[in-house]
């Protein structure tokens, strides 16, 4: 039913950040950002490794000083992840960074003269790397801020202005982000700009807050945009652990129907009929199935009342009872066994099913 609401992806120009294609028919990639001082090689490398392990496709690093910019070369040699240098104002840092990274994030309107923009474009052309224009509702150029305030219209005007500055030099290897700190403005800005330019969009809500708040804002804004066919790469910003950003982004992709990979778990909220510790069971199931990439619908139910009906929609289900549980596969009861060991058996059965499905494709 959900599929009816999912629109085809908006056709966009394809660019490449390292070996990751963005736009066109490329899968929607997931990004994050390190929070170490980039020149602290050891810490930054550790964060890159954490992000890679969590499944990030691309990572952005803040470049504030020449020391940071020069560190990028070493960091690039230590990771297979595509790297983006995040630079504000100082075009010279972009020139250094462009020698080693896979993309530069800089707003050309912030770096001053046309000559400086030309230099950055030249450096990016020399290594065939793209530029991300990152419009942020909280830091619009003065003229747009005064005319429109921090509104979606102001963000769109800023994006068009920055895009034109690059296009004037014949540079079109561009991606664009339009982030506000709330979902409605973020959504509106992307929706307004989408028909006006062919470039791929990097989706995100800026300063989205802690996990709980970011989860809600990012799900509303990014989930909606993705279902409208808008968005080619994304970041869920969270004041918290790096791994959570990747997990959240991947879940939004999955639940908005844009990525089929991995396990989708349906679980009941429990009620007075429950006779088992479903909360502990679901935590164990989630953790132990997190490594599975094969798309599977799994349901975990507190009793048999809804489990059989739910199991018809699930590839494999578990229904608890009074000290016992049923494993239901393909709508039929596969096994009935004691509650104590049923999670272990369930995980085994899901892994077998995932391997069978993977072999079929
Ligand atoms: S599946 Fe059973 S325990 Fe869970 S909410 Fe429904 S009736 Fe209650």
TrEMBL record:
Binds 1 [4Fe-4S] cluster. [4Fe-4S] cluster binds at residues 268, 271, 303, 310. It is an enzyme of class 1 (oxidoreductase). Its cofactor is [4Fe-4S] cluster. The keyword Transcription regulation does not apply. Residues 265-351 form the IspG C-terminal domain. It catalyses: (2E)-4-hydroxy-3-methylbut-2-enyl diphosphate + oxidized [flavodoxin] + H2O + 2 H(+) = 2-C-methyl-D-erythritol 2,4-cyclic diphosphate + reduced [flavodoxin]. Belongs to the IspG family. Converts 2C-methyl-D-erythritol 2,4-cyclodiphosphate (ME-2,4cPP) into 1-hydroxy-2-methyl-2-(E)-butenyl 4-diphosphate. This is 4-hydroxy-3-methylbut-2-en-1-yl diphosphate synthase (flavodoxin). It comes from Helicobacter trogontum. The lineage of its organism: Bacteria, Pseudomonadati, Campylobacterota, Epsilonproteobacteria, Campylobacterales.
């Amino acid at each position: 039913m959900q599929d009816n609401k999912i629109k085809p992806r908006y056709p966009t120009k394809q660019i490449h950040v390292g070996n990751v294609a963005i736009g066109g028919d490329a899968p929607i990639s997931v990004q994050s950002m390190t929070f170490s001082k980039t020149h602290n090689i050891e810490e930054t490398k550790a964060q890159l490794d954490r992000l890679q392990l969590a499944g990030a496709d691309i990572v952005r690093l803040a470049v504030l000083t020449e020391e940071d910019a020069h560190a990028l070369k070493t960091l690039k040699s230590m990771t297979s992840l595509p790297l983006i240098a995040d630079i504000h104002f100082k075009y010279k840092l972009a020139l250094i960074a462009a020698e080693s990274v896979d993309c530069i994030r800089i707003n050309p309107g912030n770096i001053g003269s046309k000559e400086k923009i030309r230099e950055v474009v030249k450096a990016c052309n020399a290594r065939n790397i793209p530029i991300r224009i990152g419009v942020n509702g909280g830091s619009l150029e003065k003229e747009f801020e005064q005319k429109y305030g921090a509104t979606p219209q102001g963000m769109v005007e800023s994006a068009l202005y920055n895009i034109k500055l690059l296009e004037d030099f014949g540079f079109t290897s561009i991606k664009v982000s339009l982030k506000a700190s709330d979902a409605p403005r973020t959504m509106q800005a992307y929706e307004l700009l989408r028909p006006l330019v062919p470039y791929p969009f990097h989706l995100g809500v800026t300063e989205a807050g802690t996990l709980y708040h970011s989860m809600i804002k990012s799900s509303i804004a990014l989930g909606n945009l993705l279902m409208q066919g808008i968005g080619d790469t994304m970041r869920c910003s969270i004041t918290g652990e790096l791994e959570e950003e990747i997990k959240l982004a991947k879940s939004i992709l999955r639940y908005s129907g844009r990525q089929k990979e991995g396990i989708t778990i349906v679980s009941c909220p429990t009620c007075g009929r429950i006779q088992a510790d479903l909360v502990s069971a679901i935590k164990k199931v989630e953790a132990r199935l997190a490594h599975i990439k094969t798309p599977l619908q799994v349901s975990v139910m507190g009793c048999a009342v809804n489990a059989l009906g739910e199991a018809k929609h699930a590839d494999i289900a578990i229904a608890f009872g009074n000290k016992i549980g049923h494993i239901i596969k393909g709508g039929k009861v596969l096994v009935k066994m004691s509650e104590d060991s049923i999670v272990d058996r369930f995980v085994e059965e899901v892994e077998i099913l995932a391997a069978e499905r993977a072999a079929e494709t």
